UniProtKB/TrEMBL annotation:
One Pfam family matching this protein: PMP22_Claudin
Gene3D superfamilies assigned to the protein according to its UniProt record, in alphabetical order: 1.20.140.150
Name of the protein described by the UniProt record: Claudin-19
Keyword Transmembrane carried by entry: yes
Membrane association type: Multi-pass membrane protein
Cellular component, GO, one term: plasma membrane
InterPro entries: Claudin (IPR006187), PMP22/EMP/MP20/Claudin (IPR004031)
Highest taxon in the source lineage: Eukaryota
Segments passing through the bilayer: 6-26, 46-68, 88-111
MF GO annotations: structural molecule activity
Compartment(s): Cell junction, Tight junction; Cell membrane
């Protein structure tokens, strides 16, 4: 049962990560997809960050659930010899690292939300004054 639960959590994590990538690309300031308003773009990027954080938490839950079950089986008194029991493999450590990096990346995307006092302001680049231009 724990393997099926871990598998379901990993599939959910993959789907959330996929949709997080799509939403984050739409929310980037360098893309022309979607709205031209920078406030709306930053809110879309925050939504992508939330999807990444959820994806990382699902991965962390799946890997930790499996590690807990492996630890329980290892220390349980059973008729299985010690050399035939499961041990932590490198995939668990890769999973924990991937979950950590996904949560970190999602939280950085969530930090791209504009502050409340500047939400209505838009900044425009000022052109040079006409006296500074040289005509040839």
């Amino acid at each position: 049962v724990h393997i099926q639960t871990s598998r379901a959590l990993m599939v959910i994590s993959l789907l959330l990560g996929f949709f997080g990538i799509i939403v984050s690309v739409v929310g980037m300031k360098c893309t022309k997809v979607g709205e031209d308003d920078p406030i709306t773009k930053s809110r879309i990027a925050v939504a992508g960050g939330v999807l990444f954080v959820l994806s990382g938490l699902c991965t962390l839950a799946a890997v930790s659930l499996y590690a807990t079950q492996v630890t329980y089986e290892f220390f349980r008194e059973s008729t299985v010899p010690v050399n035939a029991r499961y041990e932590f493999g490198s995939a668990l450590f890769v999973g924990w690292g991937a979950a950590s990096l996904t949560v970190l990346g999602g939280s950085l995307l969530c930090c791209s939300c504009p502050p409340k006092d500047r939400r209505g302001q838009q900044y425009y680049r000022q052109s040079q004054p006409s006296t500074a231009r040289e005509y040839v």
